[in-house]
Amino acid sequence: MDEILEILEKDARITAQEIAKLTKKDVASVKKKIKKFEKEGIILRYKTVINEQLIETQNKKIRALIEVNVLPQKNLGFDYIAERIYKFPEVTSCYLVSGTYDLLIVVEGRDMQTISNFIAEKLSPLEHVRGTVTHFLLKKYKEDNVILKYRDENKRIAISY
């Protein structure tokens, strides 16, 4: 991968001037290359990783990872059914994977019931979906290569015999 892309992937807030220093390139060429990556769709957007555990809010969403077995369409493969699935607003990510299932999707909802309704009413009834397995995300330790720190409020009491 291009070194400018590697730097931006680690820290999207870094300036073109800082990238130029790190790569020993002039600022104008760094800016030009970044614009080119954006125009070509190589850089799709810039993202902030938020430690949601530290946010005091009533509107926390829960996430589930759903394994989906599908019957690929003749002449269309997995792409057709993947596109139908990833267009649902509840779906935040969709991957074609190897192994015992075909697609791995990440969904977000207000609560477990919302996600359950999504599976029962939208995902499972799709013509080419053969089965699903749902895993609710309980706690994040690391996301996008960032280790998430937690408050020390819930320390467990040591038990000795």
Which features does this protein show?
161 residues, 5 helices, alpha+beta, single chain, flat, two-stranded antiparallel sheet, Alpha-Beta Plaits, 4-stranded antiparallel beta sheet
Overall CATH class of the largest domain: Alpha Beta
The CATH architecture of the largest domain is 2-Layer Sandwich
Structural class: alpha+beta
Instruction: Name the average pLDDT.
Output: 91
Unreliable stretches: none
Into which percentage range does the β-strand content fall? 15-25%
- The number of distinct structural domains comes to 2
Encode the helix/strand succession as letters: HHHEHEEHEEE
Shape type: flat
What is the count of β-strands? 6
Count of DSSP-assigned helices = 5
For the termini, the CA-CA separation is 54 Å
In angstroms, what is the radius of gyration? Answer: 21 Å
Lateral strand order in the biggest sheet: 2-3-1-4
Describe the structure.
The protein has helices at about 5-10, 15-25, 25-40, 80-85, 110-125, and strands at about 60-70, 90-95, 105-110, 130-135, 140-145, 145. It is flat and about 55 Å long. It has a four-stranded antiparallel sheet with strand order 2-3-1-4. Strands 5-6 form a two-stranded antiparallel ribbon. About 30% of the residues lie in helices and about 20% in strands. The protein is an alpha+beta fold. The longest helix is centred in the N-terminal third of the chain and has 13 residues, at about 25-40.
